[in-house]
Amino acid sequence: MSLLIASKIQSHPKYLLLVSQRDTLSWTLSAIVFCMYFGFILLIAFAPGIITQPISDNSVVPLGMLLGVGVIIASAVLTGVYVFRANGTFDPIVEEIVREASK
Amino acid sequence: MKKLNTLFFGMLTILASGLSHAADTVASSVASAVAPASAVVAATPAAEVPLNWHAIIMFLLFVGVTLIITYWAATRTKTASDFYAAGRGVTGFQNGMAIAGDYMSAASFLGIAALVYMNGFYGLIFSVGWLVGWPIILFLVAERLRNLGKYTYADVVSFRLQQGPIRVMAAVSSLIVVIWYLIGQAVGAGQLLHTLVPQISYREAIVVVGALIIVYVTFGGMKATTWVQIIKAGLLLGGATLMAFGVMAHEGFSFEKLFSDAVAIHPKHLDIMKSVVPIGAKANPIESISLGLTLMFGTAGLPHILMRFFTVTDAKAARKSVLYGTCFIGFFYILTFIIGFGAIVLVANQPAYVADISKSILTLKGGGSMPAVYLSHAIGGDFFLGFIAAVAFATILAVVSGLTLAGASALSHDIYASVIKKGKASEKDEVWVSKMCVIGLGVIAVLLGIAFEKQNVAYIVALTFSIAACTNFPVLVLSIFWRGLTTRGAVMGGYTGIIGSIGLLIIGPTVWTKVLGMGPAIFPYDFPTFVVLPTVLIVAYIASVTDSSERGKKEREAYDAQLIRAETGLGAEAASVH
Predict the structure, then answer these.
(1) Interface membership of B68 toward A (CB under 8 Å)
(2) With a cut of 0.85, is the ipTM above it?
């Protein structure tokens, strides 16, 4: 990567936007997964009564089982959200920046 | 080409002689079981079990196919990029499968099923913890790793920092993780194979694993490793799906019936739905939190997992591969949960599987990791048992291949080529050193596996995941996202993670009390991450901001160029075209 291209990219208005948008998405989604998972862990640690109560009167299935499977499924869905956003929004911007800077 | 042929078939001959030795033992033990009267048979309990032909045939089939692939990969492995990174030609879907194959170890397959079998709901906590690291890998590291690195995660950390000290630190932590993980896998392989095919001894099983790994990795490099992992992931997902389907079919496809049947049969009854710690253990909130941190961030710091992102063509493929991988792994963990409960219903209290039914209806013949294996027998008889046994063994081979390659690349790429030769080693020499390291690590894994046969290795998960979570993960994320990180901060933070994790584990309950027998532990928690991870971040922060050296200033300035490459992929290592 030549210095010229680097300086062109750095001053490209869309580059800074890309960085801040992608970072926001990365950290927001990470925070969601972290809170979701630690919500689950904190319930286990401090409120096991909630986790282990059955989902209905005639069921043996504890609420925590649904929450745990829910965290697994939500994690997969959120990775999908990121991939969708990155493929659809960020990749075209990156291509544009690189194309214009390489001129 | 000729040289390759000679070498490859030479290694195969050595391997075959090892196997034939094992076969001799099998034959003689069968002979001794058949020839004398039944009194002698009773005297040798191992020979009571008939030879598990289904398992052996399916295992040999797997070995045959993977060796053909290894030969194919060997003819296409010429450059360092081929050897370490499969020429960066792996697609997103293939890498997703390989990620699943690299990550879903026999420990998680047999281990989670066994945890659920013994403790019910508690096992789910591990399933969830081992999955939630994946979104974090995708959001924070996968693409940036692909854009910045070449073969190891140390490439990324040392991108703008000083090569020597960073790579030594990263290699030390990688090697500790890899070697301990290898010991765990080797011990597991030896015990599993010996239990399934008692005619093969623990040692022979480990030697077979070591020999196969050396052949796969030295000849086929990352290409062969990737395909071994892909095939294994397919087999494991297929096998686990069939098992879960069998369980659900038996239970009339009703989860409610599965769980209530399990509650009725399990000796602890409703406790298996109510305990959030191992049944019988005392609730410990801090331990639960620390376990959660360790599983989540440890996954995102395992060197053999991070290495997989250098094999794909570009950042887009890296990203897709995590999506595929997460779906496969999440699906698999939900299956293991069904399998664990299915084992309570179909395996517990069955005289054919339980060791001594008058003492406990849960304790199985052959030890703690057997519930999933016997469940396959309960569902599909000898044939399915053989299939699942072969899958479990394939699983160990795939994980060990990935680990060995990651360890060898830390030694050859980070230590030999970058530190000793200061980046001036020829590609040919570097690959040669790497192959020697593969052989060395293979031999070490076999020897340590044998040495640790009778040891309590329960702390290995805590050890490897803690170091990954407290060293590799924070240093990697800081180097990518924080302009202010300097060499001093990264190195001091990194060693704090290594020494802190190991130190607290040694004085913790698993090692201090159970392994060393020194009485009550000085540090009362099994997982030290909740103390060590924040400490590492604080040390790295303070050591970086107080670093007023000229070098530190340059390192902060170099962040802009790093950021451009991380974000746009400009200058990233390209896929090689064959």
Answers:
(1) no
(2) yes
Per the CB < 8 A criterion, the answer to whether B151 and B409 are in contact is yes
Q: Does A79 touch chain B (CB under 8 A)?
A: yes
Please name the residue that has the structure tokens 């066994």.
Answer: B114
Q: Model confidence over B110-169: pLDDT tens digits?
A: 888 999 999 999 889 889 999 999 999 999 999 999 999 999 999 999 999 999 999 999
Q: What is the DSSP annotation of B66-111?
A: HHHHHHHHHHT--SHHHHHHGGG-B-HHHHHHHHHHHH--HHHHHH
Question: Contact, B478 vs B301, CB < 8 A?
Answer: no
The two tokens of residue B452 are: 């640790």
Q: What is the mean pLDDT of residues B178-196?
A: 87
pLDDT digit string, tens, across residues B475-484:
999 999 999 9
User: Is A11 contained in some domain?
Assistant: no
Contact residues on chain B for A69, CB-CB shorter than 8 A: 124, 334, 337
Strand partners, B364: B354
| Cβ within 8 Å, pair A72-B333 | yes
**Biggest CA-to-CA distance, chain B:** 83
- In the stretch 109-138 of chain B, residues with CB closer than 8 A to chain A read 121, 124-125, 127-129, 131-132, 134-136, 138
Would A2 be classed as within a structural domain? Answer: no
Nearest to A62 among B129, B273, B563 (CB): B273
At position A1, the amino acid (one-letter code) is: M
Whether A87 sits inside 8 A of B569 (CB atoms) is no
User: Minimal Cα distance from A9: which residue of B?
Assistant: B564
The beta-carbon neighbor of B132 closest among A19, A60, A71 is A71
Instruction: Look at residue A3 and tell me if it is in a domain.
Output: no
Cα–Cα distance measured from residue B375 to residue B290, given in angstroms and rounded to the nearest whole number: 32
Domain containing A86 equals: 25-102
Strands (E), B370-483: none
Q: Is the pLDDT of residue B511 over 90?
A: no
Q: What percent of chain B has pLDDT over 90?
A: 67
Q: Could you tell me if B271 lies within 8 Å of chain A, comparing CB atoms?
A: no
Domains of chain B in start order, with CATH, are 1-48 (no CATH), 52-125+161-453 (1.20.1740)
The total of structural domains in chain A comes to 1
Render pLDDT for B427-442 as a digit per residue (tens, 0 to 9). Answer: 999 999 999 999 999 9
- Tell which residue, B395, B399, B402, B425, has the closest CA to residue B309: B402
Q: How far is B403 from chain A (nearest CA, A)?
A: 25
Among the partner-chain residues B292, B320, B326, the one whose CB lies closest to the CB of A76 is B326
- pLDDT 10s per residue in chain A (103 long)? 567 788 888 888 889 899 999 999 999 999 999 999 999 999 988 988 898 899 888 888 999 999 999 999 999 999 999 999 999 999 999 999 988 888 7
Using a 10 angstrom Cβ sphere, with 0-12 exposed, 13-18 middle and 19 or more buried, the burial of residue B429 is middle
What is the CA B261 to chain-centroid distance, rounded? 33
Distance from CA of B446 to the nearest CA of A (A): 36
DSSP lists the bridge partners of residue A62 as A54
Tell me whether residue A5 is in a domain: no
